[in-house]
Design goal:
The protein is mainly alpha-helical. It is built from 5 helices and 2 strands, in the order H-H-H-E-E-H-H.
Length: about 180
């Protein structure tokens, strides 16, 4: 794209393009998105561990048993099905330090994920900038190679002309052709 080529040819443009490339790399990285999701899940686990001390756990269980084969009885009775409903409320204030250990473990994992996320973001940003610098230097090298090729063509014309007049040797002509 012409605008990108213009930016690659100026130092300020390379800086501007570097900022843009770094931001896009951070925004579109699937690896960073996965790490962010893992960190968010771990933070939810930490919050759940913190709440476990004062938020009760409520379990509800219902059961229906129905007699399918009554052994040939002619009359259906109201006792052919059993219904039950159980509600259990559990409030764990202390589980021998297990809640505190879970909170500590979850907090450590959140910190570890945040550090990993930051390191990965730094790597992605530096990788994007390094590739941009590589592209800029390649662009410059292509320009230098084109200028060198043009100079070699002009030299070949001059040496060929000098050789045809007898003022240049055969080796000079071969060197110019090789160059």
């Amino acid at each position: 794209h012409e605008r990108v080529v213009e930016l690659l040819e100026s130092p300020d443009g390379v800086d501007k393009l570097g900022v843009f490339m770094a931001q896009e790399s951070l925004r579109n990285s699937p690896e960073l998105a996965a790490l962010r999701a893992r960190a968010a899940a771990q933070e939810r686990l930490l919050l759940a561990a913190k709440r476990r001390r004062y938020v009760p756990t409520i379990d509800a269980l219902s059961r229906v048993n129905r007699i399918v084969d009554d052994g040939g009885a002619v009359f259906e009775t109201e006792f052919d099905s059993d219904w039950s409903l159980e509600v259990e409320l559990t409030w764990s204030r202390s589980e021998g330090g297990a809640i505190g250990a879970q909170m500590t473990r979850a907090a450590q994992q959140v910190n570890q994920l945040e550090l990993t996320l930051q390191q990965t973001a730094d790597l992605r940003e530096s990788d994007a900038r390094a590739r941009l610098v590589e592209a800029a230097s390649t662009r410059l090298n292509i320009g230098f190679a084109n200028a060198s090729a043009e100079a070699a063509r002009e030299t070949l014309e001059l040496v060929t002309d000098a050789y045809s007049r007898g003022s240049a040797g055969y080796i000079d002509l071969i060197d110019a052709q090789n160059t």
